[in-house]
Write a structure and sequence with these properties.
The structure is a single chain. The protein has no helices and 8 strands. By secondary structure, it is mostly beta strands. It has one domain. The strands form 3 sheets. Strands 3-4-5-6 form a 4-stranded antiparallel sheet, with no helix packed on it. Strands 1-2 form a two-stranded antiparallel ribbon. Strand 7 and strand 8 form a beta hairpin. The termini are far apart.
Length: about 90
């Protein structure tokens, strides 16, 4: 069993390349995938990250877009490979 309270989702501040300002990501919503219970997603201000739990470790999945441009307010799992995300 993994103690999820010890998992650090935010890894420090990022620089918004458009405004040249430093942004500290804030977690707004975390959920586990109902189709694959070893996956969870964290979204928020300048934050969209996917994680996979593998035995006793938590691994961050690669996402190929720049989250620092957006504020993600919530998300919903459509299936194990698809997430619907609301941004403002």
């Amino acid at each position: 069993m993994i103690d999820l309270a010890s998992v650090r989702v935010v890894h420090g501040s990022v620089i918004n390349r458009m405004t040249k300002k430093e942004i500290t990501p804030h977690v707004a919503f975390i959920s586990f995938c109902p189709y694959a219970t070893n996956l969870f997603c964290a979204t928020g201000s300048a934050l969209f990250k996917l994680y996979e739990i593998d035995h006793q470790t938590v691994n961050q999945q690669m996402i190929h877009f720049r989250a620092e441009f957006y504020v993600f307010t919530c998300h919903c799992w459509l299936d194990a490979n698809s997430i619907l995300v609301l941004k403002i």
